[in-house]
Amino acid sequence: MKKRIVVTGLGIVSPLGNDLSANWDAVLNGKSGIGIISRFNTEGWPTRIAGEVRDFNYSKYVDPKEARRFDRVHLFAVAAGAMAMEAANLSVGDYDPFRAGADIGSGIGGFESICSTYADFLKGGIRKVSPFFIPGAIINMASGLLSIRYQLKGPNLSVVTACATGTHAIGDSAKLIERGDADVMLAGGTESPLTEVAVAGFANMKALSRRNDEPERASRPFDKDRDGFVMGEGAGVLVLESLEHALKRNAVILAEVSGYGLTGDAYHITAPDETASGARRAMEMALKDAGIAPEEVGYINAHGTSTPYNDRLETLAIKDLFKQHAKKLFISSTKSMTGHTLGAAGAIEAIYSIMALKNGIIPPTINLDNPDPECDLNYVPHKPVKADIKYALSNSFGFGGTNGCVLFKKYEG
């Protein structure tokens, strides 16, 4: 019999707020976290907007002297991980350290540190490069720091799969527990990509929205007037446990991880497959892993990037898999509010999916004013909808043709 995996803690930092309560309140009120970039001067740039994390107080989680050695991307992860552990009521001593681990991924990693250190090097040579530069920039230090903090001596790794990173970290962690390699995993994604080079790179790909005069209305998944995605930053971390371990310590169970699917398009470095077969197969694989029929899914938190290709092809994939049930599904893109947080997106959106299951409320897709005729499903425009659902699917698709889907089930004992 398949071992059951449950979620017992959630931690989040995003453009919508620096804890779970602030995030969920913002989501239910259809609040946008998009604004003019304040981190650097974008005057004359084609894109001047992003979803920035504001008023982030890392000193609550990391000593300021220690924090200087690490990138913002790692500080987000430590904060989200600490919140998740606290929410799960887990402390060192509550688990076998050799059967507890961490998998916190990132699409890019310590981009701010890399850019700033290279600028210092060009100005002053080798003496200007900190001895802490390498450990302070590498992606897996997010898992490393949480491992050290909580004495997690089991699996310690980081997934790097572009915009599917957070979803793959959650799914892979669930499988580690399922096959008996761990009892507890901290899983999720983190990203802090808002640097001049990263924004310029995406802008020159013509992937970003240029709706600079209306930042809060720029991310508009499934709308015919969408003109690209909006970059965001943040982190999401989940505490996963075997059901047996969670029950043994009388944990509050938020949801169950019931299915996971991952595929490759083998098509193009950035564009999704025009047949949408990779996305379809990933969703199908997650349902098969859970042993459920498509008709049992009630909600999909769509990848929904607000790009012309993604929204149309994700819609096609959903229709192809779910057939007539596609019209009955609640579907929404919370990226309409957070922007696209890249490697953190899958984890952040998994958290919103779990909250939707737990509370019986479907998050909206804001800014969906003029639906694209090719995107003709129920994307829950503008306002949340109350709905008692049993299964929620969270989709993530990334550059390189990487696809990941994780299926959550309402916990019923």
Entry summary:
This protein is of the alpha/beta class and 413 residues long. Helix content is 33%, strand content 18%.
Which properties best describe this structure?
single chain, 413 residues, alpha/beta, Peroxisomal Thiolase, Chain A, domain 1, 2 domains, ten-stranded mixed beta sheet, two-stranded antiparallel sheet, 13 helices
Can you walk through the features of this model?
This protein is an alpha/beta fold and 413 residues long. The chain has two domains: 5-248, Thiolase/Chalcone synthase (Peroxisomal Thiolase, Chain A, domain 1, 3-Layer(aba) Sandwich), CATH 3.40.47; 262-409, Peroxisomal Thiolase, Chain A, domain 1 (3-Layer(aba) Sandwich), CATH 3.40.47. Helices cover 33% and strands 18% of the residues. It is built from 13 helices and 14 strands. The chain has helices at residues 20-28, 64-67, 72-87, 111-124, 133-137, 141-150, 165-178, 196-204, 243-248, 277-290, 308-322, 335-338, 345-359, and strands spanning 5-13, 35-36, 49-50, 100-105, 156-157, 184-191, 234-242, 255-264, 299-301, 330-332, 361-362, 385-386, 391-398, 402-409. Strands 5-4-6-7-1-8-14-13-9-10 form a ten-stranded mixed beta sheet, sandwiched between helices. It has a two-stranded antiparallel sheet with strand order 2-3. A two-stranded antiparallel ribbon has the order 11-12. Helix 11 (308-322) links the parallel strand 9 (299-301) and strand 10 (330-332). Helix 7 crosses helix 13 and helix 10 packs across helix 11. It is globular. The mean pLDDT is 97.
